[in-house]
Amino acid sequence: MVDGYGGWRVPRSPGIVGLDLAGSVILIGGVLVVIVTIMFGGIWIALGMLALLGLVLGLMMVKDRHGVNGVQRLGTRIGWRATRRAGSHQYRSGPIGKTRHGACQLPGLMARTQLHEFNDSWGRPFAVISLPTRGHYAIVFSAQPEGGSLVEHEQQEQWVARFGLALSALGEEDGLIGAQITVETNPDTGRELKDEVLRRLDPDAPDLARRALLEVADTYPAGSAHTRAWITFVFASELDGRRLSVNEFGQAVKPRVRALGERFHGAGVGAVQPLSAQEVCELTRVAYDPAAGPLIEENRLAGIPTPLRWGDVGPTGHETGWDHYRHDSGLSMTWGMTVAPRGIVQSSVLARLLEPSRRVARKRVTLIYRLLDPGEAALQVEKDQRSAEFNVKTARRAGTAVEAEHRKARQTAQEQERGAGLVDFSILVTATVDGTDPDAKAIAEATITNLAPTARIALRKLYGSQDSAFAGALPLGVLLPEYLRVPRAVRRAAA
Fold it and tell me: Is residue 122 assigned to a domain?
């Protein structure tokens, strides 16, 4: 029996006097500049430059509990003010907006995306989301989580073990660069249960049984929540050094769709089915306009498809605030994980965070995995181990945290040599409330803040980028780190 899980660590770069690699480079370079200035520019100019260097290094060394230093906070503020001055925090679409042909185009990172549909080897339709900004393609699957209620502990441990094996195997999938697992809870209208009861009700059933079933259908859904889950696979558009068009990608991936859906078989995710273009449009429209959810569900249960195109699923307007994102009928706030669960945790560590909350009707939790192929994983593990050894040797007193990092790095290297996979992971949590309720925002913020400790993680609100964070938490294949201005390869080299 597995007693717990752990061993994850944040990659840390080697540095001196408590600085990371970037800070160490700034320190050494700044000292050299000061020396040259003393020689050719005078002592007073050199002292001014030395004071400026000290200020920058001081800001880099002072970090909050989320590991964010003063330079990063200052950069975020400057970027947010530039966004406000440019008016990029507001968006208007539709007939009175600025989009072409009056369409309700998706904003921000999703503006240039396109949606296509193909049929897999079983003849099932599956949607492909094209993200041309980064040259990615995404395929979305629906899942039916089985939940942990009335399930023996041994069965839960088997699910987790198979889930881990599936993640490890994803690194060997050709062209696959990332995956998202999204769990969303939203209010249950009760229409689905009522339609199911009426459809199965026997007209010859006893009157007492009929009245009991109808009463259950009317009263049971009151105040209840509906849980949905999706698995999204994100592929690079380049294969064997050649960039594939969306049609070429669709033809190349169609024989693999069934195998992708079976990757997490036996991991507690239930039946996994690819989403059609219509279903992707529906989930995106409801995310940006929660008030449209009941109408779309009613049409779906009645067998009447809601006429939606990809160019019409975006909001008619949005406004990004410093700590919130207002879109159509909803107001959302998104948090990002800054500290993974410390120590050893049980398989149920995320249960409270994932389960429905009475105080936050619509909540979305997205686990993001960025996959490393075996070759890249080996290089990253070796680099992390060298960095940990350097930090231990250069520290004046190797404290408990430094020694623990060194132990974890060695353990990761040993497990990687035995065939274990390596993935980068993060968590985004989005709470969406009624945009017209003045008290809902504060209640949702307090609820998410209180739920974070139950999962033994630290969550930080993604200030100044709430619209991008909202898009990243949707199961649409937006891997936020890939959209940063500094390329991923450069960040890894400097980390």
Answer: yes
Residue 321 falls inside a structural domain: yes
Give strand pairing partners of 39.
Answer: none
Q: Pick from 68, 14, 174: which is nearest to 459 by CA? A: 68
- Mean pLDDT, 10 residues at a time, the chain of 495 residues: 66 67 79 85 85 85 83 88 91 81 87 94 93 94 82 84 84 88 83 71 81 76 76 88 89 91 86 93 94 86 84 92 94 93 82 87 92 70 70 61 69 67 87 89 93 92 94 95 66 47
Residue 295, token pair as written in the block = 């109408």
Residue 312 vs residues 8, 306, 340, 406, 449: alpha-carbon distances, Å = 41, 12, 38, 51, 34
In a domain, 476, yes or no: yes
Rounded distance between C-alpha atoms, residue 465 and residue 334, angstroms: 9
Q: What domain range includes position 356? A: 96-188+223-372+421-494
H helical segments located in 201-347: 207-219, 246-253, 257-261, 277-288, 293-301
**Which sign does the torsion angle of CA 355, 356, 357, 363 carry?**
positive
In a domain, 121, yes or no: yes
Residue listed under structure tokens 């029996």: 1
Per the structure, the count of domains in the chain is 1
